Amino acid sequence: MNDINLIGVYSPDSSQLELVTGLIEDDIGIIWIDTNASLEVQIDLMSDVVAVIVIPSVFPVELARQCKNLKLVQTISAGTDWIDKGALQDLGIVVSNNGGGNAVAVAEHAISLMVSVYRKLDIQFDSVKKLLWQKNIRKSISPNFNNDVKTLELAGKTVGIIGLGRIGRNVAKRLSGWDCDIIYHDINKVQDVGLNITKCSKVELLEHADIVTLHVPLDNTSKNLINYEELLKMKQNSILINTSRGEVVNQLDLIRALNEGRIFGAGLDVLEDEPILENNSLLSMDNVVITPHLAGFSEEALLKSRMFALSNARLILDGLEPESIVIPT
Description:
Radius of gyration: 22 Å
Structural class: alpha/beta
Oligomer: single chain
Strand content: 15-25%
CATH topology of the largest domain: Rossmann fold
Order of helices and strands: EHEHEHEHEHHHEHEEHEHEHEEH
Number of helices: 12
């Protein structure tokens, strides 16, 4: 074990320290570094920190340069696009994400969005809350009426998963019981996942999938991964699900495709601009369901992510290699 045995919690909220402290081993020291404090104060607090858990905030490179003992920047999120991994790597500091701590939560949320878009659940919820019951929607969603608004079943559909990492695999695993055919595309080599799924090119996936669901990190290879050209390849009755990062989808292109009826609908937990702007055209679309970037939030996910962060920090303190390192692209 290193002589210096200290973990930092880098957060604007001191309560995050209390949540982590309850899970920590007695022989490990832990301190709170307030992100609102001055850089000088942060540098002083970080002087003996070997691993820092970032919850959630940008970790400044200028701070890292002054932290001579720092070896690990650990997030409790799956995404690390808000951290300059290349600059930290140059300083000999690795970045690790949550090791799939929220993979189940995000996978369940993605499937919930699929069902919500297909069954118009947001419209139904709204109708009940307004005490209208079925009055304003029964005819509009009935297949017996010639109307653009219709409800569909998930069973029998082909689901295309772009990005078969921890979250993508959890989506595939759960949909195996929904009578869906599952295809996937990943630019990385994927180990055998033991599921009845078929690998294909991105073009093949877009052309054949009824549902395209995105589970990729945001980096140089995935920004604007789905643009107007890609949306035109999708079936006219297909839907797009995004629980990864907003910039993976070109938002203006998506709005255009939806307005033109190029695809059936979309379920989004992430947007290019967050919080959503009042003039965002997506807000007025009945075939779009939007949630406020909370797909990864559940009691279980937060606990698993915190425990993984602490176990990873422990590896660093013991002079071992941490897990779930994110390589800069």
